[in-house]
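> call design_seq(struct)
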């Protein structure tokens, strides 16, 4: 799994950066880290579908288990959104064995990531945070049901539906 990080995220986790072409990569994500109520809010956005995972209260100790935390959050969010067991298992079983990191790819994806952070802020300010768990499944599920648009509102879709389309395409081939 390849995560393209904003400067705030890179400064916090200090990863070894690798160059990698992530065009049309099913396991490419963008990540941004912001402070909310003196705790870290991590927002991960899938590059192809804009599927979003949200974590609140992330600490340095969680970074050692980031791969497992992301995998479990993906499984929980996909299950909560009604993905089939076959789709969920296909995604989880075929993901790369390790995390790699790089700088953000382009300004378009960073703008989309900022929009995801804005949506996350709104959801969490309305519905609240679950302080007992860093994974905010309720916010991830709601965020992935909102309509998102590209190309000056010419193309609109829900992230959960777009990810489902990609998974169905991969399952057929």
């Amino acid at each position: 799994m390849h995560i393209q990080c904003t400067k705030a995220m890179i400064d916090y986790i200090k990863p070894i950066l690798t160059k990698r072409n992530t065009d049309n990569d099913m396991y490419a994500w963008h990540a941004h880290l912001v402070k909310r109520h003196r705790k870290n809010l991590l927002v991960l956005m899938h590059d192809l579908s804009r599927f979003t995972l949200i974590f609140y209260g992330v600490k340095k100790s969680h970074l050692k288990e980031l791969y497992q935390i992301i995998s479990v959050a993906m499984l929980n969010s996909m299950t909560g959104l009604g993905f089939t067991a076959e789709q969920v298992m296909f995604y989880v079983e075929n993901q790369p064995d390790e995390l790699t990191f790089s700088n953000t790819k382009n300004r378009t994806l960073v703008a989309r990531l900022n929009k995801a952070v804005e949506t996350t802020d709104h959801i969490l300010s309305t519905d609240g945070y679950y302080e007992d768990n860093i994974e905010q499944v309720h916010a991830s599920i709601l965020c992935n049901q909102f309509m998102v648009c590209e190309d000056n509102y010419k193309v609109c879709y829900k992230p959960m539906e777009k990810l489902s389309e990609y998974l169905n395409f991969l399952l057929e081939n």
